[in-house]
Fold:
Amino acid sequence: MTWLMAGAAILVATAFALSLLMALPAAALAETAGEFHAASRARVWLASLILPPVVGIGASLLAYSLHGEGVAASPHIAGLRPHLCLLPLLNAPAGAFAMRAFGWLALLLMCVALIRLIATIIGSHLLRRMMLSSGVPLEEEAEDVLLVDLDRSVSFNAGLLRPVIVVSSSLRSSLDSAELAAIVAHERAHARRFDNLMRLVAEVCATVQALSPPAWYYRDRLREAQETAADDAAILMGVSPVVLKNALAVAGEATRSRPATPSIATLLIPAPALIDLRRRRLECISVEAETAASHPWRGMAAAVVGLVVVALLLIAARRPVDDTLFCAFEQLIAALN
Structure:
């Protein structure tokens, strides 16, 4: 348990530090994607959420490896090597208590992230099964779109790896054929991008980085970018921005006028996302923007740049990083014991 808590503390601390360091570069890279390339922005925000925990896992494994080398790897013998030393903190009056508290907090965050992962997977599976058992195909040529009798005016994707598109009967009755096609095109874009799965990964990573305010900012911006990217994809499929805007207006009004009846399905079904923001954005889309092609390479290039920068920093400061990880792990083990 002591080693597990120390490893969790190293992971959380590393993810926290990297999340703070990436805040300004991530925002700058997301802005370079442009207003009408929301898919690229989504990739940037997703990479900004995933990278810190991944580096944190690597730091924990490296700390375990260095600890296995014994005192030969210690920076405190054979001359003091420069590193971020936690020994003064351990020797402080309340230092050991603070380190133990951080160890328990880090382990708690890891447990909460694991619980959220398992609960979301189970909930998504149950929701998909419920929709498949109670829904009927909306059209013969669109078997992946189900019409379900729900009292909420919603449309959503149910499932993670094989999502099905669900349109409630109350929403269907509120839309004309063109508006319904626009809503279905939006949801189909979510399904093709596996946005539910990406959102789950983002939520788990944000939970691990719960102590870092930028991580929650990344998560909110990712959700916004996913929704606007699905709108852009629907427009590229031939949907008129005016029709999509009108469909959102109808869906928003229907949602506000019909309070949901409490049920298990109500807890699992997501609420309509960012309707007002998306309507304002669609009003600003010009004719040129309607035909603008997406550039996924921008988001991938941003993620590659981030990885390269972090890798270069780690290579350039390999010895101080190793010494800092060894020292931190040793002091955490001492404090937790």
Remarks:
- The longest helix spans residues 95-134.
- The radius of gyration is 24 Å.
- The CA atoms of residues 53 and 114 lie 13 Å apart.
- The chain has one domain: 2-336.
